[in-house]
Amino acid sequence: MRDHLCSEDKLGAECCDRDMLISELFVSFEEKPHGAASLAQVHKAVLHDGRTVAVKVQHPKVQRQSSKDIMVIEVLVKAVHWLFPDFAFMWLVDEAKKNMPLELDFLNEGHNAEKVANMLSHFPFLKVPMIFWDLSTKRILTMEFLEGGQVNDREYMKKHCINVNEISENLGKMYSEMIFVHGFVHCDPHPGNVLVRKCPLSQKTEIVLLDHGLYQ
To answer: Is 9 assigned a catalytic role?
Structure first.
Protein backbone atom coordinates (compact mmCIF):
# COMPACT_ATOMS: atom_id res chain seq x y z
CA MET A 1 0.00 0.00 0.00
CA ARG A 2 2.92 2.31 0.52
CA ASP A 3 3.24 2.65 -3.26
CA HIS A 4 -0.05 4.56 -3.16
CA LEU A 5 1.73 7.38 -1.32
CA CYS A 6 4.12 8.10 -4.26
CA SER A 7 7.81 8.82 -3.87
CA GLU A 8 7.36 11.45 -1.14
CA ASP A 9 3.72 11.58 -0.05
CA LYS A 10 0.65 11.75 -2.21
CA LEU A 11 -1.58 12.97 0.59
CA GLY A 12 0.20 16.31 0.61
CA ALA A 13 0.92 16.65 -3.11
CA GLU A 14 -1.07 19.15 -5.15
CA CYS A 15 -0.72 17.03 -8.31
CA CYS A 16 -2.82 14.19 -6.89
CA ASP A 17 -6.56 13.77 -6.65
CA ARG A 18 -6.68 14.05 -2.89
CA ASP A 19 -10.27 12.94 -2.39
CA MET A 20 -9.79 9.86 -4.58
CA LEU A 21 -6.62 8.90 -2.74
CA ILE A 22 -8.19 9.35 0.68
CA SER A 23 -11.20 7.21 -0.24
CA GLU A 24 -8.82 4.58 -1.61
CA LEU A 25 -6.90 4.37 1.65
CA PHE A 26 -9.55 5.17 4.26
CA VAL A 27 -13.24 4.52 4.86
CA SER A 28 -13.42 7.94 6.52
CA PHE A 29 -10.99 10.80 7.06
CA GLU A 30 -11.80 13.76 9.28
CA GLU A 31 -10.62 16.89 7.49
CA LYS A 32 -10.77 18.96 10.66
CA PRO A 33 -7.53 18.24 12.56
CA HIS A 34 -7.85 16.35 15.82
CA GLY A 35 -4.79 18.30 16.95
CA ALA A 36 -2.29 20.74 15.45
CA ALA A 37 1.23 21.94 16.29
CA SER A 38 4.02 23.92 14.66
CA LEU A 39 5.30 21.09 12.45
CA ALA A 40 2.21 19.02 11.69
CA GLN A 41 -1.43 18.30 12.33
CA VAL A 42 -3.17 15.04 13.16
CA HIS A 43 -6.33 13.74 11.50
CA LYS A 44 -8.52 10.90 12.70
CA ALA A 45 -9.32 8.28 10.05
CA VAL A 46 -10.72 4.76 9.69
CA LEU A 47 -9.06 2.06 7.57
CA HIS A 48 -10.98 -0.34 5.37
CA ASP A 49 -10.44 -3.11 7.93
CA GLY A 50 -12.24 -1.00 10.55
CA ARG A 51 -9.23 0.11 12.59
CA THR A 52 -9.13 3.75 13.69
CA VAL A 53 -5.85 5.56 13.02
CA ALA A 54 -4.23 8.92 13.60
CA VAL A 55 -2.66 10.40 10.47
CA LYS A 56 0.05 12.96 11.24
CA VAL A 57 0.59 15.22 8.22
CA GLN A 58 3.51 17.64 8.05
CA HIS A 59 2.68 21.23 7.12
CA PRO A 60 3.70 21.75 3.46
CA LYS A 61 6.18 24.61 3.91
CA VAL A 62 7.91 23.41 7.08
CA GLN A 63 10.84 21.72 5.31
CA ARG A 64 11.75 24.89 3.39
CA GLN A 65 11.08 27.30 6.23
CA SER A 66 12.98 25.42 8.93
CA SER A 67 16.43 26.05 7.41
CA LYS A 68 15.64 29.76 7.16
CA ASP A 69 14.46 29.83 10.77
CA ILE A 70 17.67 28.19 11.98
CA MET A 71 19.74 30.71 10.00
CA VAL A 72 17.84 33.63 11.58
CA ILE A 73 18.26 32.14 15.07
CA GLU A 74 22.00 31.74 14.47
CA VAL A 75 22.38 35.39 13.40
CA LEU A 76 20.39 36.63 16.39
CA VAL A 77 22.24 34.49 18.92
CA LYS A 78 25.61 35.61 17.51
CA ALA A 79 24.48 39.25 17.70
CA VAL A 80 23.40 38.86 21.33
CA HIS A 81 26.68 37.08 22.15
CA TRP A 82 28.64 39.95 20.55
CA LEU A 83 26.74 42.49 22.67
CA PHE A 84 26.79 40.35 25.81
CA PRO A 85 29.85 38.03 25.79
CA ASP A 86 28.58 36.17 28.85
CA PHE A 87 25.56 34.98 26.84
CA ALA A 88 26.91 31.53 26.02
CA PHE A 89 23.99 29.90 24.28
CA MET A 90 25.44 29.04 20.87
CA TRP A 91 24.78 25.40 21.77
CA LEU A 92 21.08 26.11 21.12
CA VAL A 93 21.85 26.72 17.44
CA ASP A 94 23.92 23.54 17.23
CA GLU A 95 21.09 21.56 18.84
CA ALA A 96 18.55 23.02 16.39
CA LYS A 97 20.74 22.17 13.40
CA LYS A 98 21.13 18.60 14.63
CA ASN A 99 17.57 17.93 15.79
CA MET A 100 15.36 19.74 13.27
CA PRO A 101 16.06 17.31 10.39
CA LEU A 102 15.31 14.40 12.74
CA GLU A 103 12.00 15.90 13.87
CA LEU A 104 10.99 16.53 10.24
CA ASP A 105 11.58 12.88 9.33
CA PHE A 106 8.43 11.08 10.49
CA LEU A 107 9.96 7.70 9.69
CA ASN A 108 12.55 8.48 12.36
CA GLU A 109 9.68 9.25 14.75
CA GLY A 110 8.10 5.90 13.96
CA HIS A 111 11.37 4.08 14.71
CA ASN A 112 11.71 5.97 18.00
CA ALA A 113 8.17 4.94 18.96
CA GLU A 114 8.91 1.28 18.30
CA LYS A 115 12.24 1.47 20.12
CA VAL A 116 10.77 2.94 23.32
CA ALA A 117 7.80 0.54 23.18
CA ASN A 118 10.19 -2.43 23.07
CA MET A 119 12.55 -0.88 25.61
CA LEU A 120 9.80 -0.36 28.18
CA SER A 121 7.58 -3.31 27.24
CA HIS A 122 7.85 -4.66 30.81
CA PHE A 123 5.72 -1.73 32.01
CA PRO A 124 2.11 -2.95 31.48
CA PHE A 125 0.79 0.57 32.13
CA LEU A 126 2.61 2.15 29.15
CA LYS A 127 0.91 2.35 25.77
CA VAL A 128 2.74 3.60 22.65
CA PRO A 129 0.78 3.84 19.37
CA MET A 130 1.52 1.12 16.83
CA ILE A 131 2.94 2.44 13.53
CA PHE A 132 1.39 1.56 10.17
CA TRP A 133 4.54 1.54 8.04
CA ASP A 134 2.77 0.89 4.74
CA LEU A 135 0.86 4.16 5.20
CA SER A 136 3.81 6.27 6.39
CA THR A 137 6.49 8.38 4.70
CA LYS A 138 8.95 11.04 5.83
CA ARG A 139 6.12 13.59 5.92
CA ILE A 140 3.16 11.40 6.89
CA LEU A 141 2.97 9.12 9.91
CA THR A 142 -0.01 6.81 10.31
CA MET A 143 -0.41 5.26 13.74
CA GLU A 144 -2.90 3.63 16.06
CA PHE A 145 -5.46 6.14 17.35
CA LEU A 146 -5.44 6.26 21.15
CA GLU A 147 -7.71 8.48 23.22
CA GLY A 148 -7.29 9.72 26.77
CA GLY A 149 -7.21 12.74 29.01
CA GLN A 150 -4.18 14.95 29.46
CA VAL A 151 -1.96 13.99 32.37
CA ASN A 152 -2.67 17.29 34.17
CA ASP A 153 -6.46 17.02 33.82
CA ARG A 154 -7.54 16.19 37.38
CA GLU A 155 -11.24 16.39 36.48
CA TYR A 156 -10.83 13.78 33.71
CA MET A 157 -9.01 11.45 36.12
CA LYS A 158 -11.65 11.92 38.79
CA LYS A 159 -14.45 11.26 36.30
CA HIS A 160 -12.78 8.05 35.05
CA CYS A 161 -11.67 6.83 38.51
CA ILE A 162 -7.96 7.17 37.68
CA ASN A 163 -5.67 7.31 40.71
CA VAL A 164 -3.49 10.43 40.49
CA ASN A 165 -0.83 8.96 42.80
CA GLU A 166 -0.60 5.82 40.67
CA ILE A 167 -0.09 7.94 37.54
CA SER A 168 2.60 10.01 39.29
CA GLU A 169 4.43 6.89 40.47
CA ASN A 170 4.31 5.25 37.04
CA LEU A 171 5.55 8.40 35.30
CA GLY A 172 8.49 8.43 37.69
CA LYS A 173 9.29 4.79 36.94
CA MET A 174 9.01 5.32 33.20
CA TYR A 175 11.19 8.41 32.92
CA SER A 176 13.71 7.23 35.51
CA GLU A 177 14.33 4.11 33.46
CA MET A 178 14.67 6.15 30.27
CA ILE A 179 17.21 8.46 31.93
CA PHE A 180 19.20 6.24 34.27
CA VAL A 181 19.03 2.81 32.61
CA HIS A 182 18.78 3.28 28.84
CA GLY A 183 19.94 6.87 28.24
CA PHE A 184 17.20 7.26 25.62
CA VAL A 185 14.80 9.95 26.76
CA HIS A 186 11.53 11.28 25.31
CA CYS A 187 12.13 15.03 25.00
CA ASP A 188 8.64 16.53 24.67
CA PRO A 189 6.61 15.39 27.70
CA HIS A 190 4.06 18.21 27.78
CA PRO A 191 0.46 17.26 28.77
CA GLY A 192 -0.71 17.01 25.15
CA ASN A 193 1.79 14.20 24.57
CA VAL A 194 1.19 12.31 27.82
CA LEU A 195 -2.36 10.98 28.10
CA VAL A 196 -4.02 8.81 30.75
CA ARG A 197 -6.92 6.44 30.27
CA LYS A 198 -8.62 3.24 31.35
CA CYS A 199 -7.79 0.42 28.94
CA PRO A 200 -11.03 -0.39 27.05
CA LEU A 201 -10.43 -4.12 27.49
CA SER A 202 -8.79 -4.60 30.89
CA GLN A 203 -10.02 -1.37 32.54
CA LYS A 204 -6.53 -0.96 33.98
CA THR A 205 -4.98 2.52 34.10
CA GLU A 206 -2.61 3.30 31.23
CA ILE A 207 -0.26 6.10 30.26
CA VAL A 208 -0.27 6.87 26.54
CA LEU A 209 2.99 8.40 25.27
CA LEU A 210 2.74 10.37 22.03
CA ASP A 211 5.04 12.39 19.73
CA HIS A 212 8.30 10.48 19.50
CA GLY A 213 10.05 12.86 17.11
CA LEU A 214 12.84 13.88 19.45
CA TYR A 215 14.85 11.72 21.85
CA GLN A 216 18.15 12.38 23.61
So the answer is: no
- Smallest Cα–Cα separation from 175: which of 162, 164, 188? 188
What does residue 78 show for φ and ψ, rounded to 5 degrees? -65, -40
Q: Which helix (H) or strand (E) holds 55?
A: strand 52-58
* SS3 call for 92: helix
What is the DSSP-derived secondary structure letter of residue 149? E
Residues facing 59 on adjacent strands: none
Q: In 1-150, which ranges are continuous DSSP H helix?
A: 18-25, 62-83, 90-103, 106-119
Identify which of 165, 141, 182 has the alpha carbon closest to the alpha carbon of residue 58. Answer: 141
Whole-number average pLDDT of the chain: 88
- Indicate if the pLDDT at residue 58 is higher than 50: yes
* Burial class (CB within 10 angstroms; exposed 0-12, middle 13-18, buried 19+) of 139: buried
Answer whether residue 181 shows pLDDT above 80: yes
CA angle (67, 43, 103) in 5-degree steps: 25
**Cβ-count burial 26-62 (b if 16+ within 10 Å, e if not):** beebeeeeeeeeebbbbbbbebeeeeebbbbbbeeeb
Q: 9, 105, 153, 188: which one is catalytic?
A: 188
Strand bridging mode 205-209 / 194-198: antiparallel
